[in-house]
Amino acid sequence: EEQDRLLRHQPDQPQNPKVLRIAIIGAPNAGKSTLSNQLLGRKVFPVSQKVHTTRCKARGVVTYEDTQLIILDTPGLTSPFKAKRHKLDEAMLTDPWDSVKHADLVLVLVDVSDHWTRNCLSKEVLKCLSRFPQIPSVLVLNKVDLLKKKFILLELITELTEGIVNGKKLEVRSAFKHNSSSSAKSPLQITQAFPPENSAHEPRCLQETGQAQEGSSLDSNGDMRASESSLVTEEAQGPKRCGPRDLKNMKGWPCFQEIFMLAALRGEEVDTLKRYLLMQAKPGPWEFHSGVLTSQSPQEICDNIIREKILEYLPLEVPYGVIQVTEMWEEGPSGELLIMQNLVVPRKSHMMMLIGKGGKVISRIAQEAGQDLMNVFLCDVHLKLKVEVKS
């Protein structure tokens, strides 16, 4: 009732409100929901190792002083063929595009730990960026903590940006060939995060502010060696503004304004990105009350968290066929939340897998989902799950 009231009523407004709508797009399982949860400071979006955990667009709300960030967590951009294979709703194809259309800024997330996909942006992502070239975009390299050889990041940046960032040509040079007279008229920031074993090296920003400076870089062993190579910028050839392009031979997008490197799961460098987003907000009225964390209803959050656990514990395509039906949602005598949900599966074999030997799988799902719901709702939650075969 409280959530419904906050969503229905006019939002409170500070004296000089600012707002920024952010669409997070990328390939399935790049870490979009994990990043969204870290920005929000609480887990409200489902996360699992399987693709297509997020099934529809959902909004998260970060309110800080006079600024409101509206985070549009979207399904992974996918092709019609893959959508059919995973029995996905049409919304899975249209929602990411709809989110970008209404965004003030686009974050393109790339999983750098996936060596099969990290060297180029997917065709779906490139299509989306090309369709809305007027909307500023930022490249976010995620899961950098899983990379043993950090020099790979320099190669990825060059490929994913086509060597151009914020209208400036980006180059990786040997320090011995460094040309200190090279100039760049606007700053290029690259935020770098490293795993704990390199924690002695503080994450740095590389900035070009009028004269090319020698920046931090990485050698083949993963250590930073400022003396060996550096990233510098030069004036890019051709127009700065990007328009629709021929995507056939494109691997990257030459119109990113900034590049960030982080590890969303560990929360490394997420605050740096958050500060940047707050600085990008423009004057405008808040869309949500300052007490709102997400546009989802409590029931939707509950469904998503339970489905996350089902995806985690069932093999292959099995979890995508589970239908969730909430049969009870009540407040108990001591203020606890009583939830009973029926999980309907298409085959008896799926039911046996979901229940598990001695009921171990379904018990584990209920226990872990119940704990997550307690963390979200900040109250005791008693969750019961039943399984039945679709009649």
Low-confidence stretches: 85-94, 174-230, 236-240
Give the overall shape, derived from the CA principal axes. globular
The tally of strands reads 14
Distance between the termini: 34 Å
Describe this structure in words.
The chain has 10 helices and 14 strands. The chain has 391 residues and is α/β, with parallel strands linked by helices. The strands form 3 sheets. Strands 1, 2, 3, 4, 5, 8, 10 and 11 form an 8-stranded mixed beta sheet that branches. β12 and β13 form a beta hairpin.
Short description:
By secondary structure, this protein is an alpha/beta fold.
Reconstruct the topology from this structure:
Layout: H1 2-8, E1 18-26, H2 32-40, E2 58-64, E3 67-73, H3 80-85, H4 91-101, E4 105-111, H5 123-131, E5 137-142, H6 151-160, E6 164-165, E7 168-174, E8 190-191, E9 229-235, E10 256-261, H7 270-280, E11 282-283, H8 298-313, E12 323-331, E13 337-345, H9 348-355, H10 360-377, E14 381-389
Parallel strand pairs: 1-3, 1-4, 4-5, 5-10, 8-10, 13-14
Antiparallel strand pairs: 1-11, 2-3, 6-7, 7-9, 12-13
Helix pairs in contact: 8-10
Features:
391 residues; alpha/beta; 10 helices; 27% helix; single chain
